[in-house]
């Protein structure tokens, strides 16, 4: 098959998908037990002809959950930015590895341009830098490893020496304990700090936990703040955390995988005030910035830390050019996918103002949804203001029951979450391509669905 034939098939299948999405924003629910009946996923000793392949592929694509339509509010990504798709398709065709200038050439400069522009938004100077990694969990790991090595540079040669501790809020992402396990710090040495009733880390409790651990002879090495907690969307106070980090000389990493994109918005940038004071900052462009999965950045105030932790000499790899253009020396991986080009094409095309407008639209949609929920007697609101997560229950129906029924009846994809003792529907307005009408349609659909399925009310509290 030629590249041209592949692209022809691609175009036909995408055309069919877009046509079908317009009629059916949620793909028909496909139970695991029906997979083999409905789809041809088998692999055999002999290949199949082009026609057979195209049919199998079309069936597969049309049966796949639809994350780009106005009925997807499930997880922290969604929508479809055409410009970014163009960039990503070209990255696939080019197939460079972002380790060396020799193998990726100007694509390295594309990545460096993105990092340098985001560092400027952070308020950082010439010493700053960064890289892209395979996702927020992994760029958070990079932050933790740099914190560990900043405390004790010998660890990377001789292994752990004494017990280290890290600090993060009870509302933070599960990648922190996972990364503590990976880094040798250990899950048991993660201190989960209480939050206030808006889901923000309690800074006095943070300071006290550090004091207590130091008194026991432990070694605090990292504070992990969250800019946009996964459930509530809450933003920790970075300025206050930076003061604690300074006092004890501890690395301050910000997990802004979800909400770090507020950096782009003049209206909402105050949520990450103090970003200039932190040591490292994770941001997923595949969440609020609408770039296809995955596109995760880590920015570092002093890029020398990236070299300390991640460089390894390899004469078979780094044969030419200046280190600054051989980002394999500052990355978690060896071969590395070009995740920069899709983001660059999007940014180039709509400008920083366009990205800001996209972020602002998500906050606007969330405000609209919160207004609706707060003014409607059948809803109970649990959300925090100025977040893109709208948390509510409807007519007392358990959130899990409602979300699962909406999914199994192919109505809406929306998830649920918990804060303290309450579980609620979590509507994420992260698809900035949606308008007010799509948001209203969400509530209309939910209400009509419950009206047609009165049995749901039987489960109501
Ligand atoms: C999504 C998310 C992550 C993980 O990012 P992945 O790219 O999915 O690995 C980390 N932290 C927070 C707060 C998140 O919302």
UniProtKB/TrEMBL annotation:
Keywords, in A-Z order: Decarboxylase, Lyase, Pyridoxal phosphate
Xref: PROSITE patterns: DDC_GAD_HDC_YDC
Necessary cofactors: pyridoxal 5'-phosphate
UniProt cross-references to Gene3D superfamilies, sorted A to Z: 3.90.1150.170, Type I PLP-dependent aspartate aminotransferase-like (Major domain)
Pfam family, one: Pyridoxal_deC
Cited InterPro entries: PyrdxlP-dep_de-COase, PyrdxlP-dep_Trfase, PyrdxlP-dep_Trfase_major, Pyridoxal-P_BS
Annotated family: Belongs to the group II decarboxylase family.
Name of protein: Cysteine synthase
Organism: Algimonas porphyrae
